[in-house]
Specification:
By secondary structure, the chain is an alpha+beta fold. Helices cover 35% and strands 17% of the residues. The strands form 4 sheets. It has a 6-stranded mixed beta sheet with strand order 10-11-12-9-3-13. Strands 15-18-17-16-19-20 form a 6-stranded antiparallel β-barrel. A hairpin with a 4-residue loop joins strand 17 and strand 18 (717-725).
Length: 767
């Protein structure tokens, strides 16, 4: 110990006693000596006793008051340590009930400001925020400017939600489900909520309705009334083959007699071109009435081999088991794939409330087996004519007023839960009660590749699998969540928009609008994707990104079909490059991206900056068949002459089908043909990659571009869906080797955007 440092003073016993005495001073109670009390001990009474002890009573009261004022412990600090909580100092509900009033007073006193004013009220607790009225109001506030589907809350907890075409749509699940979605679409069942599709109701005289559809549909499309759903390709009136709008599905309302003069047809449209179609029909609706009933319906799409079984499990509880639709569904429930049924078949049923027998699992329900095999064979050969009609003057889904009344009069979930509680066997389904429960009219439509391409599909190698075959279920609004939960619990895997596009890609089929170049919907779809890709590329340092200029890539972010067909410039919705190639200001790119995204969510027809493209897409099986025959003729080498004359003579069958025009060569030069590219070796096609003609001489010539390319799980190799110019296909088939001509699939090269070697691929024409 240092000698110079003073030794600390110890506390003496007297100083410690003084400190303890000072701490006990506020709590000390004064007492009176007993001499005065002993003098009155001979006569004891209550009044005298109280008067004699008045000094002690007053002293006790003063001691209590002084102890309360001098005490520094709050209500929650008086509890044993094992009952204390950290949040009890500001939450009176975390202390016992006997101390809650005191704790509340202490919290209120401590919350006051220095001026004596109470502090601002705290936020309400979670229970009050989660009450139905508050949540409903919050949901209504969040839906301003955008539409929520009935299953939005369910999807928002499990999927990534994006705003597309003014509606919040589930894009993809939050889990890794790329391969699982493929397996579900191929072997099991894949379900998607497609209630964002638009539905136009056209009512009028039969001749007027048919004439309206014929003016806007491509030649050869079935527009006459029928028992099946028809796939159409719509164009602007009098502009065929130009002015393509997109695909559509027509569903005619059944009637008791074919001689009915007034008919109604539903037109199912993708929201990317629904506004353009509605505007086109509004200007050409003489004698008919066009109504948008999109919000009055909910729809679900089922794909996969077991989609028919899932549909039978959900719709098996029919209120009229003797109806033609119910009998047909029982017969076809055991088939292995919906591809065995003709596309466009319609089933109309009226089922009991799906909440009564929920859940109806696929594994727990027996697989219906048709005893009468002759009846099943007859159904497979010819669909029953009355399967789309409920009969007995029951309009079903077509009567929107009655459907709305049924939704309003149905029992609530609380009432159904009370009935379940009264069941003797827990978990047993509820029985239908006439007059209490309601029935639900539904329509099931067999969907497939025709709905994707807007025309009849034959061949192509994709009709044998279940990736593009399934059912579309239509029901009145208000029943979306009940049917959705029934489908999910029956074994269907819920997927989003991205998985639906991928399923069509695995089937080798185009999807709208991603593979429909030459339409305004395609440009509004591809422009935001191109702007995002350009932004990501520019954010990377110059030394860490691909130098497209050095590789000679003209357009790495979107397919430049305008340059392929000789157009001056792409539409204005696409991002433009600056004077230094792909370098342009980030501010301008963000502005272009925002404007393109807003256009993709608004009406394409009402957008003045998106003019009708100068190119046109070859659609439909009839035109595809004509082109295949023309290409086969070009491979024989019988066409002679220079390029322009030979090309025009070779394309004469296509010109005769389209229409006689004055400038035939210009029309043929602006034609695009969709193709499928299957890699024969190593390599995977990339998006926006050029398709080269290897038989063009020393230098390969670009004849088209890949719109979507990736590795195909179904084929085990690279797959791409693109579009080539008609002139380029003519040159390819004309210079192809005889071996590839016999296979009707010539070889092409798919270039790489990153400088990798080109991939060999086999090209086939799609409709």
């Amino acid at each position: 110990m240092d000698a110079g440092k003073p030794r600390p003073k110890r506390k003496t016993q007297q100083s410690r006693g003084q400190g303890q005495e000072q701490g006990r001073a506020p709590k000390r109670m004064h007492i009176q000596r007993n001499e005065a009390t002993l003098e009155r001990a001979r006569a004891i009474d209550v009044v005298g006793l109280v008067e004699a002890r008045s000094f002690e009573i007053n002293a006790l009261q003063r001691a209590i008051d002084s102890a309360r004022a001098a005490g520094n412990s709050r209500a929650f600090q008086t509890l044993p340590r094992h009952l204390r909580r950290r949040a009890a100092s500001h939450n009176a509900k975390r202390v016992p009930v006997r101390l809650r009033e005191r704790a509340t007073a202490e919290i209120r006193k401590s919350a006051q400001t220095s001026g004596g004013q109470p502090a601002a009220a705290k936020r309400s607790n979670r229970y009050r925020r989660r009450r139905s009225r508050t949540v409903r109001g919050e949901y209504e506030r969040r839906q301003a400017g955008r539409r929520w589907l009935e299953t939005h809350v369910w999807h928002a907890k499990r999927m990534h939600m994006v705003e597309r075409w003014g509606t919040m749509i589930a894009e993809s699940p939050t889990e890794r489900s790329h391969r699982a979605a493929y397996r579900a679409a191929r072997e099991k069942t894949f379900v998607q909520d497609v209630s964002f599709f638009r539905t136009l109701e056209i009512t009028g005289a039969v001749d007027a309705v048919v004439a309206l559809l014929r003016r806007h549909a491509a030649p050869g499309c079935p527009v006459a009334p029928g028992r099946r759903a028809a796939s159409l390709t719509l164009h602007r009136a009098g502009c065929f083959p130009l002015g393509c709008l997109g695909p559509a599905t027509a569903l005619w309302r059944p009637t008791a007699s074919d001689n009915t003069k007034i008919r109604t047809v539903w037109l199912r449209l993708h929201p990317a071109h629904a506004d353009a179609v509605a505007k086109e029909f509004a200007t050409d609706c003489e004698g008919v009435q066009v109504t948008d009933i999109s919000t009055d319906l909910v729809s679900f799409e089922l794909l996969g081999a077991q989609s028919t079984r899932v549909l039978a499990a959900v719709l098996g509880d029919s209120s009229d088991s003797a109806s033609c639709g119910a009998e047909t569904l029982r017969c076809i429930a055991g088939i292995n794939s919906p591809a065995a049924l003709g596309e466009g078949c319609v089933l109309a049923l009226r089922i009991n409330d799906p909440r009564l027998r929920f859940p109806r699992g696929l594994l727990h329900s027996p697989v219906p087996v048709c005893v009468d095999t002759a009846q099943l064979d007859a159904i497979l050969q010819r669909w029953p004519d009355t399967a789309d009609n409920l009969g007995c003057d029951d309009a079903g889904v077509w009567d929107r007023e009655q459907c709305a009344k049924d939704v309003d009069s149905r029992p609530s979930d609380k009432d159904l839960n009370e009935r379940r509680r009264q069941n003797l066997v827990p978990g047993e389904g509820l029985q239908y009660r006439p007059g209490v429960d309601v029935t639900v009219p539904v329509i099931a439509v067999r969907s497939g590749p025709e709905a994707l391409v807007g025309a009849r599909v034959s061949g192509g190698g994709s009709s044998s699998d279940g990736l593009a075959h399934g059912w579309t279920l239509l029901a009145p609004r208000g029943w979306g969540m009940a049917l959705w939960m029934a489908l999910v619990f029956a074994g269907a895997r819920a997927q989003g928009l991205r998985e639906r596009v991928h399923a069509a890609f695995e089937a080798g089929l185009p999807s709208f609008p991603a593979h429909w170049p030459g339409t305004a919907a395609y440009d509004l779809w591809a422009a935001p994707i191109a702007a995002d890709a350009l932004l990501r590329w520019q954010r990377r340092p110059p030394g860490k990104r691909v130098n497209y200029q050095a590789l000679g890539v003209q357009s790495p972010f979107f397919p430049p079909f305008h340059a392929l067909l000789g157009a001056a410039a792409p539409p204005t919705v696409y991002p433009r490059t600056g004077p230094a190639g792909f370098e342009c200001s980030m501010r301008r790119l963000r502005r272009i991206h925002a404007s393109a995204a807003s256009r993709s969510e608004s009406a394409p027809a009402a957008e003045p900056n998106v003019p009708a493209p100068d190119i046109w897409l070859l659609t439909g099986e009839r035109m595809a068949g004509i082109v295949r025959a023309m290409l086969q003729a070009a491979s024989t080498g019988n066409i002679e002459g220079d390029d322009d004359n030979a090309f025009e003579r070779w394309a004469r069958p296509l010109l005769d089908f389209v229409s006689p025009v004055t400038d035939a060569l210009s029309l043929l030069s602006s034609c695009l043909v969709r193709v499928r590219l299957v890699c024969s070796g190593r390599g995977v096609p990339e998006d926006n990659a050029p398709v080269l003609n290897p038989c063009a001489g020393d230098a390969a010539v670009i004849i088209g571009y890949v719109m979507t390319g990736s590795f195909s799980l179904a084929r085990g190799c690279g797959l791409g869906i693109g579009a080539c110019s008609l002139r380029g296909l003519f040159a390819l088939w004309r210079a192809s080797q005889p071996a590839s001509v016999l296979r009707k699939c010539p070889r092409v090269l798919v270039a790489s955007l990153g400088g990798a070697p080109s991939a060999d691929a086999v090209l086939s024409v799609l409709c």
